[in-house]
Amino acid sequence: MSVNSKLYEGKAKILYATEDPEILLADFKDDATAFNAQKRGSIENKGMINCRISSQLFQKLAKQGIKTHFIDSPGPNLMRVKAVKIIPVEVVVRNIAAGSLCKQTGLIPGTVLSKPLVEFYYKNDYLGDPLLTRDRLLLLELATPEQVDQIIYLALEINKFLREFWEKCQITLVDFKLEFGLDHQQQILLADEISPDTCRLWDMIETDPENRIMDKDRFRRDLGNIEDAYQQVLRRVLEVV
């Protein structure tokens, strides 16, 4: 497959144009960032691991009726995807209190929420990706009311599937981030990735609150054994699929 010019380079991926304007090639990087890119580093084989996990999960979600931008994976770090216009909103679904939710509310880390919480964050590095209310999201015209309703519905459906899937892997899904985009027909498609970079994942087999962490929090908090944790997540995913 011939590749044309680089269209965009983000913190975790590079997007390239292809001979088909409706198809892009995503190259998953080993680069790691945290705290709005204030902390930078690299995680060995992260690109390959995240690409393989995301590819498997996108295919599983498609079988559940969730439309995604995934087409195929022509190489270890590569994913062919449908070209979409990304909605500049990060959608976070929380099942257990952790991270910023605890800092902003005083909830004790590890508190199981009575029902999943769906939050919106403005994808704007300059502003620090602020938390948005629904009304602010609509005020900024980041999405229509109908699109917001559909995104909430899709986020909760994805959460149902992922919670069950990760449980089969003996992993607890604490929370995760999603991104959505619009294709040329204005359909909402799940985009970006689903991986230890975008999910908080706790090992059900491990009781120690630090040792159980299997996601990018190991990098954020300098806990070490980052590569081993990512590899373990991939091994369990492949065992289940």
From TrEMBL:
Describe the reaction catalysed, as an equation.
Answer: 5-amino-1-(5-phospho-D-ribosyl)imidazole-4-carboxylate + L-aspartate + ATP = (2S)-2-[5-amino-1-(5-phospho-beta-D-ribosyl)imidazole-4-carboxamido]succinate + ADP + phosphate + 2 H(+)
Pathway of this protein?
Purine metabolism; IMP biosynthesis via de novo pathway; 5-amino-1-(5-phospho-D-ribosyl)imidazole-4-carboxamide from 5-amino-1-(5-phospho-D-ribosyl)imidazole-4-carboxylate: step 1/2
Give residue ranges for domain SAICAR synthetase/ADE2 N-terminal: 6-236
Q: Which PROSITE patterns match?
A: SAICAR_SYNTHETASE_1, SAICAR_SYNTHETASE_2
- EC number(s): the record gives 6.3.2.6
Listed A to Z, the keywords are:
ATP-binding, Ligase, Nucleotide-binding, Purine biosynthesis
Q: Which HAMAP family match?
A: SAICAR_synth
Q: Which family does it belong to?
A: Belongs to the SAICAR synthetase family.
Q: What is this protein called?
A: Phosphoribosylaminoimidazole-succinocarboxamide synthase
Q: What is the lineage of its organism?
A: Bacteria, Bacillati, Cyanobacteriota, Cyanophyceae, Nostocales
